[in-house]
Amino acid sequence: MASSLLSRSLTRGPPSLNDNVSGMNYNDSSVETGRRHYYSSSQGPFYNANNIFMFYGGGERGDTVERIIHSFRTDDQIIHVHGERGSGKTMLSLVISDRIKHRFNIIRYDVPEISASLLLRHLLIELCPQKADLISAEQAQQGVDEQKCETALQCIVDQLSSADRARTHRPYVLIVDSQAQIQSGALGIIERLAALQTCGQVIMHCVLFHTLPDNSARTLHARQNAAPSGNHHWLRRLTLAEINEYLGHHMMLFDFNRRDLFTREMAYFIADRSEGVFRSINTLARNAFTIANLEDADKLSMSHLLMAGLPPREEPSTESGFLARHRGGVIALMGSCVVASTAAAVFLFR
């Protein structure tokens, strides 16, 4: 019995990879139902826009990160990064924070509004929490006078320049990532803090992210080669080749078996509709995955992208027409016309 089993196994030979695959009923062209729903969920691809593990270094983003980190070793205390909404400014700031977190104390300001009083309260909470009541939350929103701002700023300067702080000497990096324009008062505070030094070393470096208007962003995209100028860096839009690479890069990190899901034709369509803006690319891809899931499709196709890229339906105009706005006058006019015509008819046939 044992000899027959041994001879049978020798005749058959060792199990092959194809045997294992066929035994598992594996089919690379389909996605099981559970995974299909996962693709269109809030944890699916292109939803985690601020996950630093999904950072795409193309479009000169990786070079920009390296240049900014290198600037911390020079005399550029204030670094400016310019980009339109959806160009990846927040992702870039998170990547920079992660890269330098072991060598610097990081303070992030990512509040939608920014003013001198709001910035000072934020810094008081971070650096002098016991004196945060110098500017209350209500005062920060309404704004405070110059004397109160100076008192709060001096408290922050004293904390940064203290003897204990000088001994440890771990520099700070202030990252301002706000959608609003930085007002002159807040910029003056940042400049004063950036000028502080101890033992000949800068105490606080600052990275300011500025939102560009759409017109400036299109001009920047047309130039393509937006080289940094001093301590200013620009985040341009992606080209067609970079969009194709970004889609493959993102899908490979999310699901290696689906790394080639987007064909070149699909990438070309996404490039045309998104104009190379990260936010638009992610939104279009997410919507296409949702449509594919609603149709119970195994994988994304060009038809799903076409439906996701349809222009939004025009909302009916809320403005009333002429007749609706002057209904009373029109009715009165028609009534007078009827009365006049009746009177004319009576006069003619009398």
Structural summary, described in words:
The protein is of the alpha/beta class. The chain has a domain at 60-234: Rossmann fold, CATH 3.40.50. It contains 17 helices and seven strands. It has helices at residues 2-12, 17-23, 33-39, 61-71, 89-100, 116-127, 137-142, 146-160, 163-168, 184-194, 214-223, 240-254, 264-274, 278-294, 302-308, 322-325, 327-348, and strands spanning 78-83, 105-109, 172-177, 197-198, 201-202, 204-211, 232-234. Strands 2-3-6-1-7 form a five-stranded parallel β-sheet, sandwiched between helices. α6 (116-127) packs parallel to α10 (184-194) and α13 (264-274) packs across α14 (278-294). The longest helix has 22 residues, at 327-348. The protein is flat and about 115 Å long. Mean pLDDT is 81; it is low at 1-29.
